[in-house]
């Protein structure tokens, strides 16, 4: 006998949980299934705990710079990793508990703990129970990718998940992967007091960003004392006298980095291989991402895929936006689409990078006539008042339509300020709207009108 529901949701991540609330509120009977921790990656091993750690690292750094600000700290600033972890656990635990309590408190919603697997396109098996529904929503997220690095099975290594249990200071943390996750861990651990080396296969860090952004981010990290090894084409790991030796074929420097701990931060793998998708007939791409259309329906009618597992985004806000698209299409006949959204994200090093729209490379590829302006944070008064002058602001606009095409704001407050431009992009308004606005002094955002008055043809 199977139990029937109007909707089954697999996973309690950033799309599944709010969707459960919305569907249940609309009067549907909902079953939501979670195999591990309520709230998924963002709450337990992603955004919330890492940004909590970033906050501890920032505070330690400011304390070290006390002299510059006019205060003294008695003795060396030492970070107590047990207390840093306890603070992180408390904040992340509160969110995890909040998600569970909200779901359990929903009328019409049954919360089931266990691993869900499709039996057919309408049935899901969990803990020996068969659940049936006409509408099934997959929100299974992803996990850290573990590539077949030579020797990887012979050494202990960390991922973003196991890093959450670390309550000690690694003497020398070697991070494989110079992209968003790796860089955040690199800077926070350096500021906690570890030696840190980033090993990146490509010729520069965060290779998807513009070259000037990569270069400025490298400078920021190197100023903190982080070592960066690029062009590490052939990475291997091996035990070496109680340490871990990372073989790297880098340009310059010895071909080996000796560390005490290794963190793998080389991308994500969707949690789709153990879902029984073949039984449901749901198609995936070669990397295991579930193929969806512009409204997030899979290859099977009545099954949707939301969040990281559909490969359309890799952020909490993209997963949440997926939920809004699906819910509005289903419940409000509001034909929202994934292609309506504009790329936006942040890199939470200090200072942060806020990004929206196209990069220079994408602008170039688009073949449009483009105007661009760039302004150093060292000339932004709020930045020098705070003593945080690293980075720059760069904005590109379409010369004909005057619409903003993209921006990179690397600098204090960059993750917030970028929304001024993002909202104008959504409004499809010309950049002159921002240029003529009166902004508050002293803020980073007050410079946007000034910067937009300095637009020049894109070289
Ligand atoms: C270190 C790190 C830092 C990050 N920082 C940020 C940030 O600052 N900002 C940002 O926007 N994004 C950030 N992200 C990305 C963000 O965490 C993810 O994009 C987001 O959590 C994706 O949500 P989701 O709903 O797709 O899946 P998830 O949150 O991963 O949830 C999926 C859930 O499904 C469950 N599940 C999986 N398979 C099954 C099954 N078969 N049966 C039952 N349950 C199952 C899992 O246990 C999990 O709870 C970060 C990621 C990492 C790794």
Characterization of the model:
It is a single chain. The chain is globular. The model has no long low-confidence stretch (mean pLDDT 97). Strand 12 (243-247) and strand 13 (256-259) form a beta hairpin. The longest helix is centred in the first third of the chain and has 24 residues, at 81-104. Strands 1, 2, 3, 4, 5, 6 and 16 form a 7-stranded mixed sheet that branches. It has helices at residues 16-25, 40-44, 47-64, 66-69, 81-104, 180-192, 211-223, 277-280, 316-331, 360-366, 381-386, 414-426, 432-435, 447-452, and strands at 2-10, 30-34, 109-113, 117-118, 123-126, 129-138, 142-144, 172-176, 195-199, 227-229, 236-240, 243-247, 256-259, 261-264, 268-270, 303-305, 344-347, 353-357, 370-376, 392-398, 404-410, 456-457. Helix 1 packs parallel to helix 9 and helix 3 (47-64) packs antiparallel against helix 5. It is built from 14 helices and 22 strands. Flavin-adenine dinucleotide binds next to strand 2, helix 2, helix 3 and helix 9.
| Molecules bound to protein | flavin-adenine dinucleotide
% residues in beta strands = 15-25%
Summing up helix and strand content along with how strands pair, one would put the structural category as: alpha/beta
The average pLDDT value, as a whole number, equals 97
Q: Biggest sheet, open or closed, and with what strands and sense?
A: 7 strands, mixed
Q: Which regions are unreliable across 5 or more consecutive residues at pLDDT < 50?
A: none
Tally of helical segments = 14
The count of β-strands is: 22
Shape: globular
Helical proportion?
25-40%
End-to-end separation: 67 Å
Cα-based radius of gyration, to the nearest Å: 24 Å
């Amino acid at each position: 006998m199977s139990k029937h529901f109007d909707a089954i949701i697999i996973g309690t991540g950033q799309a599944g949980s709010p969707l459960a609330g919305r569907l249940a509120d609309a009067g549907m009977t909902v079953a939501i299934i979670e195999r591990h921790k309520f709230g998924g990656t963002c709450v337990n091993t992603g955004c919330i705990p890492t940004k909590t750690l970033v906050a501890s690292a920032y505070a330690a750094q400011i304390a070290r710079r006390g002299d510059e600000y006019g205060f003294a700290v008695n003795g060396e600033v030492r970070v107590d990793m047990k207390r840093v972890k306890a603070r992180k656990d408390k904040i992340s635990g509160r969110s995890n508990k909040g998600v569970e309590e909200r779901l359990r408190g929903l009328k019409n919603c049954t919360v089931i703990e266990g691993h869900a697997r499709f039996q057919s396109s309408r049935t899901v098996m969990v803990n020996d129970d068969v659940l049936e529904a006409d509408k099934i929503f997959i929100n299974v997220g992803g996990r850290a990718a573990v590539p077949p690095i030579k020797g990887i099975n012979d050494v202990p290594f960390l991922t973003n998940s196991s890093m959450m249990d670390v309550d000690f200071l690694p003497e020398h943390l070697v991070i494989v992967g110079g992209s968003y996750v790796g860089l955040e861990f690199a800077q926070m651990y350096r500021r906690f007091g570890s030696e840190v080396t980033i090993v990146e296969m490509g010729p520069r860090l965060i290779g998807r960003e513009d070259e000037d952004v990569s270069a400025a981010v490298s400078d920021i990290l190197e100023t903190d004392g982080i070592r960066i090894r690029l062009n590490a084409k052939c990475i291997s790991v091996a035990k070496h006298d109680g340490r871990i030796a990372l073989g790297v074929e880098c340009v310059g420097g010895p071909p080996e980095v000796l560390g005490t701990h290794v963190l793998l931060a080389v991308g994500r793998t969707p949690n789709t291989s153990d879902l029984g998708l073949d039984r449901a007939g749901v198609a995936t791409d070669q990397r295991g991402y579930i193929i969806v259309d512009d409204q997030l329906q899979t290859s099977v009618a009545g099954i949707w895929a939301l969040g990281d597992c559909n490969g359309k985004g890799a952020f909490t806000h993209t997963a949440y936006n997926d939920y809004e698209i699906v819910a509005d299409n289903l419940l409000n006949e509001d034909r929202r689409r994934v292609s309506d959204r504009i790329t936006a994200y942040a890199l939470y090093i200090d200072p942060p990078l806020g990004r929206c729209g196209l990069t220079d490379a994408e602008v170039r590829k688009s073949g449009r006539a483009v105007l661009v302006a760039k302004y150093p944070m060292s000339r932004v008064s709020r930045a020098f008042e705070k003593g945080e002058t690293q980075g720059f602001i760069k904005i590109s606009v379409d010369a004909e339509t005057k619409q903003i095409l993209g921006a990179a704001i690397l600098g204090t407050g960059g993750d917030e300020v970028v929304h001024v431009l993002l909202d104008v992009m959504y409004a499809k308004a010309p950049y002159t709207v921002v240029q003529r606005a009166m902004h508050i002094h002293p803020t980073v955002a007050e410079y946007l009108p000034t910067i937009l008055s300095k637009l020049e043809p894109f070289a």
